[in-house]
Amino acid sequence: MRLLVLGGTHFLGRHVVDAARAAGHDVATLTRGVSGEPPDGVRAFHADRDDPLPAEVLAWAPELVVDTSCQTRAAAEHATALDPAGYAFVSSLNAYRGWPPGPLRGEDEPTWDTDDDEYGPVKAHAERVLGGALRDRFLTARAGLVVGPFDPLHRLGWWLDRIAAGGPVVVPDALDQPIALVDARDLAGWLVQVCGQRSGAVNATGPAGMTTLGGLLDTCREVTGGDAEWVVVPEADLLAAGVQPWQHLPLWLPADVARTAWDVDTGRARELGLPSRPVRDSVADTWVWMQTHPRPEPPPGRTLPGLPADLEETLLRT
Ligand SMILES: NC(=O)c1ccc[n+]([C@@H]2O[C@H](COP(=O)([O-])OP(=O)(O)OC[C@H]3O[C@@H](n4cnc5c(N)ncnc54)[C@H](OP(=O)(O)O)[C@@H]3O)[C@@H](O)[C@H]2O)c1
């Protein structure tokens, strides 16, 4: 079928393009052409998503649309103009009004209903307008933590770099904290598979408790080799020193938030066949990618995560 990826040249979208080609679809992307171009054999349309769709996109008449782009202002207008048989949208758990901190018992929990120009409300707004326009042709994948090769947010990547550098590594005293993640390649393949076949909302992340923070860091050490040693710092000391959860120590949340934030019911995702490859494969493949590609540029307006050197020194001294 003709499958249009709205996005498709950066991270998740790039894997959607690969998965759609592997599934035998005729694939096109729609981007501004700033983040790069899709591989040979993929039609590249260019436009800003806030502008009307180019006539050649409408003329190509995609039958399926996978929307990984964060640009959602004109989403409903475009969806109506394209009128596809299936539309899969990449949303986020942040679309839920109560997450974080959660927990999320299923997909019926309330989503944001405000017009705020913030990540969660924007995703929820897009879901509402797209769902209104497309009805049972619309699936929204509320993604959790996405990892894998080409990840520009460099969260797992920072840990891999730091652990590979070896020596004493500051880690929070939350190593038994359960965490869940979804490999971008699993999510991408599944989006292609369910687009046009299934509808509604799906919490699209790994099963709760699939690993722990400590398990993930141990896997990073195994994969990178080296002599990294954990220097376990109590949460109160990290916070007192000014360590920002998630930003300075990626994937770490304070215990009171973590208890519920990682508690996400993904039963529907499992029923609909969203795979969850072994964490080791995601870690190892991300590390291979990092050895063969330059470190990513942070997306506009964002800083790459990581523990500032002065903070690390202070924490290791105490
Ligand atoms: N990473 C996570 O942990 C996480 C968690 C939950 C949800 N998500 C969601 O997952 C999705 C992942 O995105 P991704 O970056 O991996 O997708 P992607 O499709 O690989 O990259 C984003 C694409 O959007 C295009 N784009 C950006 N601004 C545009 C504009 N104004 N008009 C047209 N195209 C535009 C970019 O190309 P150009 O720059 O060339 O235009 C690029 O191709 C996002 O929707 C994000 O909210 C991520």
UniProtKB/TrEMBL annotation:
Region Disordered, annotated ranges: 293-318
Matching Gene3D superfamilies: NAD(P)-binding Rossmann-like Domain
Pfam families: Epimerase (PF01370)
Domain NAD-dependent epimerase/dehydratase: start-end pairs: 4-197
Name of the featured protein: NAD-dependent epimerase/dehydratase family protein
